[in-house]
Design brief:
Strand 1, helix 2 and strand 2 form a beta-alpha-beta unit. This protein has a single domain, classed as Rossmann fold (3-Layer(aba) Sandwich), CATH 3.40.50.360. Helix 2 packs across helix 7. By secondary structure, it is an alpha/beta fold. It binds flavin mononucleotide. Flavin mononucleotide (FMN) binds next to helix 2, strand 4, strand 6 and helix 6.
Length: 197
């Protein structure tokens, strides 16, 4: 390669690397749909991501599934489901900030809420739903009277931040567990879809 061409190719290659690329790792539509659905989730260790994907599966895979850290533009969607993993009684700060900042886009399109929590490995009660959905997610989003699902999640030591793992392992009776149920997430997805046909 001539020296001039080499320099040109090098500069073009470097410029391409500088163009920021939007991540869309989970963006997919397995099945075509006349309506545009999005599931937006926040997670630390992945259970809420799986819940989001399974909710979409319950809708025959017509929803795009986004991690809130992608900061997706949801204005092109007709229907949105939002939810996330719970730590200290809250979804992540990124999710809370995103919901607040994008309320004008999300509010008119919001069709369902979900939360994924440990709940001390106990079954979900109406009080848990009221605390995590009505008094938390719905209070941030300003929409009530839509379907919601609270799912028991997972603890996986190897996926946790080391300092968090250390603290958690000091808690009496705390152990690894997997209580997330694909069929429950899918049933919720179906329920939301049915309500918006
Ligand atoms: C540091 C920490 C704090 C948690 N706080 C709560 C809580 O307040 N209430 C609850 O029900 N579950 C709590 N959990 C359990 C998580 O909600 C559960 O493990 C969930 O599956 C995590 O979702 P993720 O894998 O998507 O991050 C906590 C877990 C961790 C690691």
């Amino acid at each position: 390669m001539k020296k001039r061409n080499f320099i040109k190719a090098f500069l073009l290659g470097s410029a391409a690397l500088m163009v920021p690329r939007r991540s869309s790792a989970l963006e997919y539509y397995p099945r075509p749909s006349g309506k545009k659905w999005a599931v937006l989730y926040s997670t630390w260790c992945g259970s809420a991501r799986d819940a989001g994907v399974w909710i979409s599966e319950g809708m025959d895979g017509i929803a795009n599934v986004f991690d809130v850290r992608e900061k997706p533009d949801l204005s092109g969607y007709d229907h949105i489901i939002v939810g996330g993993a719970i730590r200290s009684g809250r979804v992540s700060q990124e999710m809370q900030d995103f919901l607040t900042k994008n309320q004008a886009v999300i509010k008119p399109r919001l069709r369902g809420y979900f939360a994924v929590c440990g709940n001390m490995m106990q079954p979900v009660t109406p009080e848990v739903t009221s605390r995590l959905i009505d008094r938390h997610l719905a209070a941030i989003c300003g929409v009530t009277g839509i379907p919601s699902g609270v799912f028991l999640g997972r603890i996986t030591w190897g996926l946790m931040e080391p300092d968090v793992r250390e603290q958690m392992q000091k808690m009496p009776g705390m152990k690894e567990y997997d209580n997330l149920k694909r069929d429950e997430c899918m049933a919720f997805g179906r329920e939301v879809l049915e309500k918006n046909k």
